[in-house]
Write a structure and sequence with these properties.
The chain contains 4 helices and 5 strands. The chain is an alpha+beta fold and about 130 residues long.
């Protein structure tokens, strides 16, 4: 799905919640993945110039999960280590978006190439 505007960030939250319910997540786990998705979607719009989200329902034996992959073709993140530090921001935020999203998920990966964009993948399992 497209993640280009603030309205799309709202749609991301709705779609992620619907899929978390489908995956059988508790209300607490739904809230965690929706909050993480909202943070990354906002970054995709504000810093990446917009992008896309792929939502995947996961099944591994008896485990069920949800994987979200956000991609943009924005300016990229020149210093990932610094960007993942609590309190660091390149804008006007609190600097908790990336690191906070990582804490809310069971799996988190980020790949960014300056000048080519950023891909953030996160997953939560129940």
């Amino acid at each position: 799905m497209a993640v280009l505007t603030s309205d799309d960030v709202v749609r991301v939250r709705q779609a992620v919640r619907a899929n978390a319910i489908k995956a059988g997540f508790s209300l607490v786990d739904q809230t965690k993945i929706v909050t993480a998705a909202s943070e990354i979607a906002r970054n995709t719009v504000d810093y990446g110039g917009g992008g896309t989200l792929l939502i995947e329902l996961l099944r591994e034996g008896a485990r069920h999960g949800l994987k979200l992959t956000f991609a943009d073709q924005g300016p990229g993140i020149p210093d990932l280590e610094r960007a993942m530090t609590d309190g660091y921001t390149s804008g006007n935020g609190l600097g908790l978006g990336l690191s906070g999203a990582k804490r809310l998920c069971n799996e988190f990966a980020i790949k960014s190439t300056p000048g080519s964009g950023t891909i953030v993948s996160l997953a939560r399992w129940r």
